[in-house]
């Protein structure tokens, strides 16, 4: 790797550390990123100059430039999903989220957190995990009309078939112990998964499946229809 490429790689890794690990001083971030203190300081100075980091007292955190990039990530899907996220939160008083598909990963694009609960689930935008993990990921896999999983185990294939039959997926304790999620896929006109929408809650507080599932499936269908209309116009 060239020196320039190495510097870019280190800067990106530092941004990921700020996103996943939260703010820190130069010394803390250097230790967390496995970089020297001087290199970390230079990188943070450059990132701050361009708005990707900002400094409060002696601690650095993500800057607002990160939000500008996030706002441009699948804007059509995020815009179409926004009223449905609000509606799901209003009805069930639990966190609602929309995710997009990035090859073999589910990536959270947006989420709405209820303000009525003291304890709630956060599914932060930018969170990424395999499509085989969690309700958001597996409902996308199951909905894909061109699904090919040559290395998948028999149990996963059977589960995906059941998800395709009922129209939604559930997960328990996969991304976080004590959290249950239910999600349905958002698809294009050919049935290929574009993303997913769902609700996450502490397991003991998840709304009844017979009420939650139809609401989430209907939201996913409405978003799919809206996106298909945008594509035709």
Q: What does this protein look like?
A:
This protein is α+β, with helices and mostly antiparallel strands. The chain contains eight helices and eight strands. Strand 7 and strand 8 form a beta hairpin. Helix 1 (3-21) crosses helix 3, helix 2 (26-33) crosses helix 3 and helix 6 crosses helix 7. The longest helix is centred in the C-terminal third of the chain and has 24 residues, at 209-232. The radius of gyration is 20 Å and the shape is elongated. The model has no long low-confidence stretch (mean pLDDT 86).
In short:
The chain has eight helices and eight strands, in the order αααββααβββααβββα.
Secondary structure layout:
Blueprint: H1 3-21, H2 26-33, H3 37-49, E1 53-56, E2 59-62, H4 65-71, H5 75-92, E3 95-102, E4 105-112, E5 128-130, H6 134-143, H7 154-166, E6 169-172, E7 179-187, E8 193-202, H8 209-232
Helix pairs in contact: 1-3, 2-3, 5-8, 6-7
The number of strands is 8
Number of H/I helices: 8
Molecular shape: elongated
User: What characterizes the major β-sheet?
Assistant: 6 strands, antiparallel
Class by SSE composition: alpha+beta
Estimate what percentage of residues fall within beta strands: 15-25%
Average pLDDT, all residues? 86
Uncertain residue ranges:
none
Along the chain, the helix and strand elements come as: HHHEEHHEEEHHEEEH
How are the strands ordered across the major sheet? 5-4-3-8-7-6
Distance between the termini: 45 Å
- Our Rg estimate from Cα atoms comes to 20 Å
- Bin the helical content: 40-55%
